Amino acid sequence: MISTAVRPECFSLVMERISPFLVAIKMCFRIWKFPLGTILAEKPLTFVSIETLTECVVFMISREDFEMWIAQDIHLLRLVVHKIAYKLYHSSHNRDARLFYPPTFLFLYYMLKFAPAHNIEKKGEIILQKTREGIREELGVTVKTINRTIAKLKEDGLIDSRKGKVVMSQEQYQMARPRSGITYRDVRKRMKKEIFEISGITCLAYEEKKPEYLIIQPINEPHAQMLARQVSFMINNTEKGFLLIAFLVKNWNHDLSPWSAPAVFGKESFGDSAEKTWSFIKEELIPEAVKRYKLENDGSRKPVLSVILGGYSLAGLFSLWSAYRQDISISAAAAMSPSVWFPGWLEYMKDKKIQVKNVYLSLGDREEKTRNEMMSRVGDCIRKMDEWYRKNEKIESVLEWNQGNHFQDVDVRCGKGFVWCMENLKCKS
């Protein structure tokens, strides 16, 4: 191993007269884990680990000399900027992929790239030697999520485990290839994403070229971050075309509550502005969707598509409440982990006549296991709703139980609800 320090005023001469050194410098940039970003950001320290598989020659340059060098040599500065831009481009692409896809897809896609690179065709099987922490660093998801994903893929017969390591046979590799889902590029090609505002309310839209259904979904900021993953799940689980428009609710407890109610957790009580939110959907959002995406065929402001309204938690309750309105403009309601414990809700729904054709209900199997006395009623309430719909309403409905508590797999649960509605609702067009 050779270490060396070179003064910056010598670099131009060295690079002109000794071309092999220039080649070596360029090669270093290809494999370098030097803290380029740290220096340009004027940060004091960074830590890196470099592991080589063969004997290498190492060039060492002090930080002071390197800073002087890039300040005086435009060619080196361009090389440094190119290196950083390349890393940023790929890290941004990988981050978007993590937002867009569910963990099962990410892990399976990772294994399908790993297997051929390690000669699964010749060996008959491959063993992923990485620890869970190592996989977490590669995929950008939590260790807990990785463990759940591995358990799910084992249950599906796509991988095995041996002494804590993930194992994939050649047969499993062949099974997994067609099940890896739609590629990231295919999804981006299939869906057009758009962000716009209506009366100061931010809307996020995912549109297919020939949608059959218009899906409307009230969301909050955390759900907005996982909306792309929800859309990815929907695409991978239905052939139906759809236009999804989600809108950000400014005051969750106030804008989605059908009537006032005291606080259940914390100090924030529930308002009574569901009526205003419904008016926004009916009088502004739907007409804007019809105009923007050319959904009408008779010159009216009404969509030719079947409309599905759905949401999670209190947005699920709001969707159910909207399904009882006489001025209905929706065909199905999807209520994922809805707040049906809400005071007075069961009495309200039994006193009214539901106006939609299809209702989807779901709940996590641990949601009712809470110390909060009011919220612990959610399991009994949703069972009573399911029984009431089956016996007293002429609609198609389902109650699906998911694993986990209220905050688990929100994107997947919402995706499942909308997929069920599309698969069981006859489209207008």
Topology readout:
Blueprint: H1 8-17, H2 19-31, H3 36-40, H4 63-72, H5 74-100, H6 103-117, H7 120-123, E1 125-128, H8 132-139, H9 143-155, E2 160-162, E3 165-169, H10 170-176, H11 184-190, E4 192-198, E5 201-207, E6 213-219, H12 221-237, E7 242-248, H13 252-255, H14 274-292, E8 306-312, H15 314-322, E9 332-336, H16 345-351, E10 358-364, H17 378-392, E11 396-402, H18 410-424
Parallel strand pairs: 6-7, 6-8, 8-9, 9-10, 10-11
Antiparallel strand pairs: 1-3, 2-3, 4-5, 5-7
Write a brief caption for the model.
This protein has 429 residues and is of the alpha/beta class.
Overview of the structural elements:
The protein is α/β, with parallel strands linked by helices and 429 residues long. 48% of the residues lie in helices and 15% in strands. It contains 18 helices and eleven strands. It has helices at 8-17, 19-31, 36-40, 63-72, 74-100, 103-117, 120-123, 132-139, 143-155, 170-176, 184-190, 221-237, 252-255, 274-292, 314-322, 345-351, 378-392, 410-424; strands spanning 125-128, 160-162, 165-169, 192-198, 201-207, 213-219, 242-248, 306-312, 332-336, 358-364, 396-402. The protein has an eight-stranded mixed β-sheet, sandwiched between helices. Strands 1-3-2 form a three-stranded antiparallel β-sheet. The radius of gyration is 28 Å and the shape is globular. The N and C termini lie far apart (71 Å).
